[in-house]
Design goal:
The complex is a heterodimer of chains A (217) and B (383).
Chain A (H helix, E strand, L loop, with lengths): L1 E5 L3 H12 L4 E6 L2 H11 L3 E5 L9 H12 L5 E5 L4 H8 L6 E5 L6 H12 L3 E3 L1 H8 L11 H12 L3 H8 L3 H15 L7 H17 L2
Helix pairs in contact in A: 2-3, 6-7, 7-9, 7-10, 8-9
Chain B lengths: L1 H27 L1 H4 L2 H19 L11 H35 L13 E2 L3 E2 L3 H39 L3 H57 L4 H29 L2 H18 L4 E5 L7 H22 L4 E8 L2 E8 L11 H12 L3 E5 L6 E8 L3
Parallel strand pairs in B: 3-4
Antiparallel strand pairs in B: 1-2, 4-5, 5-7, 6-7
Helix pairs in contact in B: 1-4, 1-5, 3-4, 3-5, 4-5, 6-7, 6-10, 8-9, 9-10
Classes of the chains: A alpha/beta (217), B alpha+beta (383).
Protein name (chain A): DNA-binding response regulator
Pfam families (chain A): GerE (PF00196), Response_reg (PF00072)
InterPro entries (chain A): CheY-like_superfamily, NreC/VraR/RcsB-like_REC, Sig_transdc_resp-reg_C-effctor, Sig_transdc_resp-reg_receiver, Tscrpt_reg_LuxR_C, WalR-like
Chain lengths: 217, 383
């Protein structure tokens, strides 16, 4: 798997290179700014990209904007955005781009190497990897059908929204595939969503619902 | 032209008679008016009234200081009563001369109407000569004298209430000295909190991680086959780094919210209202350049107010409006919840208040039981 990394902090970019090298990922290019990132994506046509939110020159949200632009120029380009903090607003903007895998994770998650590499593969395959903290921000809200979910259903919802498939959810919660399936049926019924089996579309449906619950007047 | 003059005379007359009433009220209500709050309200009324008479635009009227408002009390009592009484005498005596003189014969000898203060009307000669004379003289005085007298009083009023003097500057300096001390206190408390968070949290965790790694190295060189112990040490160290990162993120967020640095006040407030539990309408005008400290306070204040609305008020909608007028930023947060928000009970409102006052701003919390709640803040943001 060929990766392009946009990260201006040398400590972190060398760390990522080291880590990805051990998991059969080839780092095609490491760049430290948005313009070079767009060039590198054109030149190397990577399988997946990793982008830091804050990049020079202003160290604001250049990474997000570069990611959105790269996605427009190369429809379907898988993007995993890394950040020192997560903001629901950014998650919503990233999810609004259609087609192709999207990930948004705290940099902390990199230290759980296998989960991180798993998330990277998921994104590369067109799936979703949303940070648990984004989901926590979304699910916290009161006055919503989410309040009617049981504790277990909420756990399933959180893992599903992060982009995991039924098998992984069952494995994480130590329950059978069948039980996962039943919980998901209940969740979709309570939230009034149509059940879709495709992983990515399912995630989008859930996240769109969660986002909309916060913004609609 | 003459019609304009007459309306001027009428307005001046009403103004002067009003001054008489307000002079009397000032004397009667003096103990109450000595309270700075009432003195300021009273002064505001007079300043606006005088401004209207002189036709000065409201924008050019400055807010009176407490000292000036208190000074206005005796000045108003004396000038208002004296000039007002003069006006009353003029008008009253014209009325007396007009109505009472032709009917002089209807009064008993002791109660005969008097013209020119002390000349009793005892026959048609005095009635028909002095009567019209008094009317003409007083009418002339009214016609020519009222407008300048009323204007003089209005000018005295504005001079007392508006002019910037050493005393006023001294008062302002005293206020700024106090708020500056509050700023330094708040700043100091904030630095101590950050220091404590980093010292007790992140630093302590790093030490414990370093110790575990050091022991792990020792084990590797002494007894590399004790894999279980090594595993435990590495797992603890690893979890320690994750907890340290989470704590560090919380500290950073409390110092200066990253979204504010990324997106500015506009974007940061959009993010706050989006993730708030209550549907919230955000209304932001053109704010121009706003100092970072003010942005941070506005962000915290809006976030905290909306969190309160979502957690405690049972509101179904909320609103946040931020607008700029010249050198002030005004922030209004409303919700349609049950009200009863009390800054003495919750630490949230007290925290907002402390931050706003520390920047020389003002805050009013209007939250009657039953609602709705309106929190209004004004912050100076320079030019």
């Amino acid at each position: 798997m060929r990766v392009v990394i946009a990260e201006d902090n040398v400590l972190l970019s060398t760390g990522l290179e080291l880590l990805l090298g051990r998991y059969d990922c080839q780092v095609a290019a490491v760049v430290d700014n948005a313009a070079d990132f767009l060039t590198a994506v054109r030149d190397h046509q990577p399988d997946v990209t990793i982008v830091d939110v804050r990049l020079p020159p202003s160290f604001r949200d250049e990474g997000i904007r570069a990611a959105l632009r790269a996605r427009r120029e190369h429809p379907g380009l898988p993007i995993l955005v890394l950040s020192q903090y997560v903001e629901q607003q950014y998650a919503a903007e990233l999810l609004a781009t259609t087609g192709g895998g999207i990930g948004y994770l705290l940099k902390d998650r990199v230290s759980r190497v296998e989960e991180f590499v798993d998330a990277l593969h998921r994104v590369a395959a067109g799936g979703t990897a949303m940070d648990a903290e984004v989901i926590a921000q979304l699910v916290q809200r009161a006055g919503d059908p989410i309040a009617t979910l049981t504790a277990r259903e909420r756990e399933v919802l959180a893992l599903m929204a992060q982009g995991h498939d039924n098998t992984t959810i069952g494995h994480r919660l130590h329950i059978t595939d069948n039980a996962v399936h039943k919980h998901i049926g209940n969740i979709f019924a309570k939230l009034g969503l149509a059940i879709t089996d495709s992983g990515h579309r399912r995630v989008l449906a859930v996240l769109t619902h969660l986002n909309a619950a916060g913004t609609s007047p | 032209m003459s019609r304009g003059r007459w309306s001027q005379v009428r307005r001046s007359g009403i103004y002067l008679l009003g001054s008489l009433v307000s002079g009397i009220v000032t004397v009667l209500a003096l103990p109450l008016l000595c309270a700075p709050r009432f003195a300021l309200l009273w002064a505001d009324r007079h300043r606006d009234r005088a401004g209207r008479l002189l036709g000065t635009p409201p924008a050019s009227r400055t807010d009176p200081t407490t000292r000036r408002a208190l000074l206005w009390l005796p000045v108003n009592a004396v000038t208002g009563m004296a000039l007002g009484l003069l006006a009353l005498l003029c008008v009253g005596n014209v009325v007396v001369a007009t109505i009472a003189t032709p009917l002089w014969w209807a009064f008993t000898f002791e109660e005969r109407p008097r013209l020119f203060i002390d000349i009793a009307v005892t026959g048609w000669t005095t009635a028909l000569t002095l009567g019209p004379l008094q009317i003409v003289l007083l009418a002339a005085l009214t016609f020519l004298g009222f407008p300048p007298i009323a204007r003089a009083h209005a000018r005295i009023c504005l001079v007392v209430l508006s002019h910037s003097t050493a005393g006023e500057l001294a008062e302002r300096v005293a206020v700024l000295t106090r708020t500056r001390a509050d700023v330094l206190d708040a700043h100091g408390a904030e630095l101590r909190r950050i220091e404590r968070d980093l010292h007790d949290g992140t630093q302590a965790r790093l030490v414990s991680i370093a110790m575990r790694l050091a022991v792990a190295r020792q084990v590797l060189s002494d007894d590399p086959r004790d894999e279980q112990f090594l595993g435990e040490l590495l797992r603890d160290a690893h979890e320690g780094t994750e907890e340290a990162m989470t704590e560090l993120r919380d500290v950073i967020r409390s110092v200066y919210p990253p979204i504010l640095a990324d997106r500015g006040l506009d974007g940061a407030l959009t993010a706050v209202t989006t993730r708030c539990g209550v549907p919230t309408r955000l209304d932001i005008g053109d704010l121009g350049r706003v100092p970072a400290a003010v942005e941070a306070v506005v962000y915290f204040a809006v976030a905290e107010s909306l969190t309160n609305a979502a957690r405690h008020s049972g509101a179904t909608t909320a609103g946040a409006r931020v607008s700029r007028t010249a050198d002030r930023l005004s922030v209004v947060v409303t919700d349609n919840g049950i009200g009863g928000a009390d800054q003495r009970r919750g630490t949230g409102l007290a925290g907002i208040r402390r931050r706003v006052l520390a920047l020389d701003g003002t805050i009013t919390i209007d939250s009657p039981p039953g609602g709705p709640t309106t929190i209004t803040m004004e912050l100076p943001c320079g030019l």
